[in-house]
Task: structure prediction
Amino acid sequence: MEAKKQTELLGTQKISTLLRNLSIPAMIGMFVMTLYNVVDTIFISYGVGIDAVAGTTISFPLMMIVMAVSAALGMGGASVISRRLGEKRGDEANRVFGNIISLIIIVSVVGLIIAFFALEPLLILFGGTPSTLGYAMDYMFPIMFGTFFFSFGFATNNIVRSEGNAKFAMMTMIVPAVINIILDPIFIFVFNMGVQGAAIATVISQASVTLMIFQYFLKGKSSLSLSFQDLKIKWKIVIEVMAIGMPAFVQQAAGSLMMIAINKMLIQFGSEFYVGIYGLIQRIVMFTIIPIMGVMQGMMPIVGYNYGAKQFARMRETIWITLKIVTACATIITLLLVLIPSPFLRIFTSDPEVITEGSAAMRVLFLTFFVVGVQVVAGGLYQALGKPKQALILSLSRQILFLIPLVLILPHYFGVIGVWMAFPISDVLSFILSAALLYRDRDTILVKGKDEDKEDLAGAEVDALVEPTNVES
Result:
């Protein structure tokens, strides 16, 4: 009953309060999750060296592919579930949840096959060199062996948030992070296991949160329930979930391709040293995106629920507040990282050459970061509304359409700095595309709503929301 009441707040509570209550736990959870990634890197950097950081950076594309599938299941499922709950179709929401669990099991089996039979050739394909391949293998074998724990935790976190339980979703990120931070120095230094120790610590921490989430669903703390009957795969549900989750998959998978391209070009026009620098900057990027992603994740269940409940004025108010907040956050982050980048790098290393080269890279890389918030919100918005075409276009734009081609072209003219230049240029181009899509759909998404009553919206307005008449979807 308490879980049901919590879900219904998505349609009744004041938007600013609701957005704060959903966003802050998401931010805290992501902060702690990012912190343990950073602590991992700090321990590896100081305990093993910059080549080990480069090795784990080389291995990230493979890890990101696993996360891409999990993101598709989690975010696609969360969108479908939040709208089913808004429509008071609880049984169907449970069926969607059961199918997602079955798909996670399938993904886990594939991960085990890769771990035992295809890991080394994949890491070589992703840019592994004689000086980094050993570190990458040591790190990724335990990670791939524990695919189920990563996939389950990543996917179900989005589902828990879709029913309005942001606090428990936050705990599912905090608990493994704390466990990981405790275990890291033990495995890396006490047991002298290096990067493999860091990976084992991560798998153990994810296994602990898997048990925690299972308990949450099986003990009735959720508005969703899990039964063996719901585990039977229904292709209609799978297609709907994957269609909406595809943008999340594309975004994560594109991130994997992007890292492969960046690593290869940095080695070709520089050395493994620059791959290590990019590995450190990437950890800083994880922190910078937290407030933007947190607010976006807080927005999605509110938009999805109120769209399903046909409360369109509340939906639009949520979108506008979110856009204002993320733009302010992105602007502050840009100023900090462009004006004073070196203190952030000193968290990871005391090497003066790394700090000098890394600071120069960051000043270029974050030059136009202030426009990133609009891209992120636009992608999340179209996913929450169940509009996979628009969401897919936005997911493809920054990394596939803009960033990867620029990364492959610019270094031929500017060397290593060309890799860094690709980021601000692609951010601006992706912002223009996002703004154009939002402007195109402004009548149905951003403008109408405050003074309209439900009867007006229930007719022609609903048709317009599902398929805008003034444009081609």
